[in-house]
Amino acid sequence: MINPTPIIIRASSLSGLFDCPARWAAVHLEGRRMPSNGKATLGRAVHASTAVFDQSTIDGAGITIEEAASAAVDAIHKPDEDVLWEDDSPHDAEKIAVSLHKKYCTVIAPTQKYTAVEVKCERLDITDLSIALTGTTDRVRETDDGFSICDLKTGKAAVGSDGSVKTQGHAYQMGVYELLAEQASGVPITGAAQIIGMNTAKTDAGQRVGTGEILDARSVLVGDSESTGVLEMAAKLVHSGDFYGNPKSMLCHKSYCPVFQICKFRK
Ligand code: SF4
Asked: Which residues line ligand 1 at a C-beta cut-off of 6 Å?
């Protein structure tokens, strides 16, 4: 029996919910926060500058690649939250962010026909599951198969040495972004979801960019006669109150988990 009071789930937090429910509850229900880190700040920087460039292309505002790059520099040197840089440095992050920004603008952006940038959906209620989804979809683009969403992902292994982008494991998050984009933009999302990967390596050769696609990402969200859909699984978990811990999570670390010092599941 699902509690009637809806619980809000951010699209970007869904994989974290399944990875370690105890950490998810600490952050999203109890409001415990960690300072940001160098990797997340670098990712936000590239998101910020590429968004400026793509929005300018849609608007015909004529902002150059170099001008848009200043949004990445600002995001690194004037972050709007505390950042623990540890082994990373703002100097290195700036160099990588600006380089990736330029590659994105020259290699990826010219191949796209974007119709919207950073499409924010305040709330999408799934009333029968008593959850509400929220989040921002990076891009909506027009393709031969209709409108589709794009998600920018930065990381050390976002793009393989063969240029391929790993899409495995991203379907349900992309599916949620499709629902949110449809709600916020009012256009039907029918094309394959696209992941735009950008490698945050220090060398130019290692800073690969590429794309990968997921067809019918939403199919994993809803169940069928043989299996439960991901949204129902998430709803049952958040309404159960059984937020068990996963000490084998990759993010089970003092830098990433706000209850690391007090968590009973690490014993
Ligand atoms: S310390 Fe580890 S197991 Fe405990 S909540 Fe954090 S990530 Fe999960």
From this structure: 20, 22-23, 245-247, 249, 251-252, 257, 259-260, 263, 265-266
Q: Which residues contact 248 (CB under 8 A, 6 or more apart)?
A: none
pTM as predicted: 0.94
Ligand 1 atom closest to the Cα of residue 247 is 3
Residues 135 and 21: their CA atoms lie apart, in Å, by 19
Assigned token pair, 170? 């991203």
Q: Whose Cα sits closest to atom 1 in ligand 1?
A: 260
Mean pLDDT, 10 residues at a time, the chain of 267 residues: 81 96 98 94 98 98 98 96 92 97 98 98 96 98 97 94 89 96 96 97 94 94 90 96 97 95 95
Q: Decide: helix, strand or coil at residue 133.
A: strand
